[in-house]
Amino acid sequence: MTTLVDRIDTLTRDALAVLQPGFVGTTAPDWLLRRIGEGLSSVGLFGRNIASPGQLAGLTAQLRAERDDVLVAIDEEGGDVTRLEVRTGSSFPGNHALGAVDDVELTRAVAAELGRRLAECGVDLNWAPSADVNSNPDNPVIGVRSFGSDPRLVARHTAAYVEGLQSAGVAACTKHFPGHGDTAVDSHHSMPRIDVELATLHARELQPFRAAITAGSKSVMSAHILLPALDPDRPATLSPQILTGLLRRELGYDGLIVTDGMEMQAISSTYGIERGSVLAIAAGADAICVGGGLADEDTVLRLRDALVTAVRKGELPEERLADAAARVRALADWTRGARGAASEPGAASQEGTAPGTDIGLTAARRAVRVTAGERPYEPLTSAPYVAAFTPVANIAVGDETPWGVAAELARMLPGTETGTYADAAVDDVLLAAGDRRIVAVVRDAHRHTWMSQSLDALLAARPDTIVVEMGLNQAPPRGALHVATFGAARVCGLAAAEAITRA
Predict the structure, then answer these.
(1) Measured between alpha carbons, how far is 411 from 389 in angstroms, rounded to an integer?
(2) pTM of the complete model
(3) Per-residue model confidence as pLDDT tens digits over 9-27
(4) Which of 129, 148, 163, 345 has the most other CB atoms within 10 Å of its CB?
(5) Residue 98, SS3?
(6) Phi, psi of 365 (to 5 degrees)
């Protein structure tokens, strides 16, 4: 650990102000509280920090006891990417399910209710929504996190989501600028590249971000992707042409620009997090997101000192760092004002967002698409065997959040059993199922050859098998009943279980 300063001067406070670090534990460690006192203006929360709404409210109160204007951020997309309900699955369907319904008022209401729950727990910045146009169905990291593949649909739902979330006093962070939907690589692992013409980027990727800006999105998150049509040398997060030239000047965006996680391999393995952070601020970013993987004091001090050193060496203009810090503080002021307005007696709440509302389940039910097979379908009335064909989860989703329909079916049909399969083990499925009806649950079957082959073999042996697709619904419907949920949130599983037992 290195420390280049022995007093908290303006430069050091500004360097701390632009960091959005994470930490380990369900209470704030002493080092974090000390750095907040020294100027750290933001804290990022992840699933590891959350045990219950009450605990989360206590944690955010603990942070704000150090300074009332600290920004508390979270990566809560709903759907497959949830931190509030990381151990149970989300009460809200994700973007793809909302896009499948295509009711902007529903999207707005879902986002408002999610925002209300975040605000109630003291969270005031949400790294959502994903505004990526899922133009590549084989994308390994976006998929059901996108509203869809039509730029116009994605644009109108992105705007509605921003409006709904911010109506609850929680700042939106529209991501991943300028668009991560056409990638075949996950930037958590390496540098994605999108080789399309500038005209295509404007017509496709940028449409939702223009809509988000018009809707007043308080922040935008950059993507660690290379787009040679915009900048042949540096990824968007580190590119002055993209962050300052395109986002600020051409699109006229004046809010906070946040980076995606700097420890992701697209940046850390190429530039290192220290140099990457300096380049990001110099390019026009205002806040450095770090903490999904590196969640300790040493990381904060390394980045703080890298920024201070870069200014002192003339590699980063002091005015640029000061401007970035000022934008962070301006957003903190907005959220503090929004918290105050929400707590005033008689403050109005949006219709459909009252405490205890089932708007998430309502949306999940509306998203479900049921396709019957050639033979008449008989609804499940006895306990089935659920075979979950499970791909490796991407880092954004994580593998600690449960998904599927087994838990919901077990509540409806006691005695339901389940098994998890990661390869084409159809004989094992048939042996475990015995004479029980089989429910095969898949996720992005079109992307996984082994999964598609497993379904083929299973349906050949047991034509009465029910198929539930909880990812992108790209493969042709098959099975005695095919249920597409457009996401794997807990409420999507409940909606699918209802369809199976009541169809």
Answers:
(1) 21
(2) 0.93
(3) 999 999 999 999 999 999 9
(4) 129
(5) helix
(6) -65, -40
Residue among 159, 151, 170, 169 at smallest CA distance from 105? 159
Q: Residue 87 corresponds to which tokens in the numbers above? A: 């151990």
Cα–Cα–Cα angle for 289, 290, 293, nearest 5°?
145
Query: 399 versus 473: which is more confidently predicted?
Result: 473
Tell me which of 352 and 202 has the higher pLDDT: 202
Rg (CA), the chain: 23
Q: How many CB atoms are located within 10 Å of the residue 500 CB? A: 24
- How far apart, in Å, are the Cα atoms of 230 and each of 58, 100, 211, 481? 44, 31, 20, 46
The residue type found at 66 is: E
Question: What tokens appear for 390 in the block?
Answer: 């499970």
Q: Enumerate the β-bridge partners of residue 42.
A: 71
Give one DSSP letter per residue of 371-437, joined into a string: EE-SSPP----S--EEEEE-PPPPTTT-SSS--SSHHHHHHHSTT-EEEEESS--HHHHHHHHTTS-
Would you call 446 a catalytic residue per the annotation? Answer: no
Tokens of 268: 């850390």
Q: What residues contact 196, with CB distance under 8 A and at least 6 apart? A: 182, 204, 227, 229
Residue of 260, 286, 305, 444 with catalytic role: 260
Catalytic residue among 96, 157, 180, 188, which? 188
Three-point CA angle 118, 120, 125, nearest 5°: 35
Angstrom distance (rounded) from CA 488 to CA 442? 10
**Helix axes 318-342 and 297-312, enclosed angle (nearest 10):** 130
Q: Got the DSSP string for 440-460?
A: EEESSGGG-HHHHHHHHHHHH
Taking every pair of Cα atoms in the chain, the longest distance, rounded to a whole number of angstroms, is 77
Q: Which residues pair with 93 in a beta bridge?
A: none
User: What number of CA atoms fall less than 13 Å from residue 166's CA on the CB side?
Assistant: 21
Q: 180, 135 in Cβ contact below 8 A?
A: no
Tell me whether residue 188 is one of the annotated catalytic residues: yes
- Residue (of 288, 235, 272) closest to 15 by Cα position: 288
DSSP 246: I
Angle at 249 between CA 248 and CA 254, to 5 degrees: 35
What is the DSSP track for 169-205?
Answer: T-EEEEEEET--TT-SS-TTTS--B----HHHHHHTT
| Geometric angle at alpha carbon 7, from 5 and 11, rounded to 5° | 70
Q: Give the SS3 label for residue 156.
A: helix
Give dist(CA 70, CA 111) in Å, integer: 23
**444: phi > 0 → left, psi -120 to 50 → alpha, else beta; which?**
left
